[in-house]
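dumping this here before i forget
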Amino acid sequence: MRADPGAGRWLVTGAAGMLGRDVLTVLGDAGIEAIGLGHPDLDVTDPAAVRAAVEGIAVVVNCAAWTDVDGAETAEAAATAVNGTGVRILAEACGDAGARLLHVSTDYVLPGDADHPYDEDAATGPVNAYGRSKLIGEHAVAELLPKDGYVVRTAWMYGEHGPNFVATMLKLAAQRDTLDVVDDQHGQPTWSYVLAGRLVELGLAALEGRAPGGVYHGTASGQTTWMGLAREAYRLSGLDPERIRPTSSAAFVRPAVRPAFSVLGHDRWAEAGLEPLADWREQLAAAIVRPAFADLLRSPSQG
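structure:
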């Protein structure tokens, strides 16, 4: 993907994270001028700093977030400062600068009690503090940037540049003969690199006037459970999938409630002239051969 010179200069917040790093890679490969700012470089809760960072920018991709789901249960105000207030500050700055804002959100804004994929206009209803904090951010984008704001919800994300479920499963393969993995939560495992590519495509479509503002679902097609994901990761890595044994969420009680059903619909991509993201199995097969994952299987005992 090579961008038109008219793509302007982009800003990626949260640039040191798993998704932010992939977005910068995709932008660089596309020949788009980009600035990446991590938390030490930009505090999104600082209005003056945000205004200065957004000046002269065509597209902001906001990957900055409080991501400690369990920690948010006892620090909801701190999570909301980043995921809610910080997003409002970004949206205000983008409105003043005439920049498009691509804000990354989450399936956790939904109640997780459905039996069919949630469409982009489904009623929200977070079941934990993290989800509530992210929903406040979504509302800020919708209120302040109804035409130039894009909320991209993702879920079950894994990638090469940070801790994630797939990496953990492969790492544990060298340490344990079997693993008990939850089989009663349903979702769409999504490779951060694929999502990064879609964010760039959406930003370009926004600049060209081809993509209406609003909510989009940036998750893989298809669906599985955490056990299904772990078994497929093992199968693709040449390991015995039967080493992964099913269990229930009740066996892993955590401070924050997790949605039982995080399967999202993808109809809105057609309005931007884009196809839904590839099936989760296809994404995983392409990701797992990358050195960051393949190297996890090389333990001393395996040579």
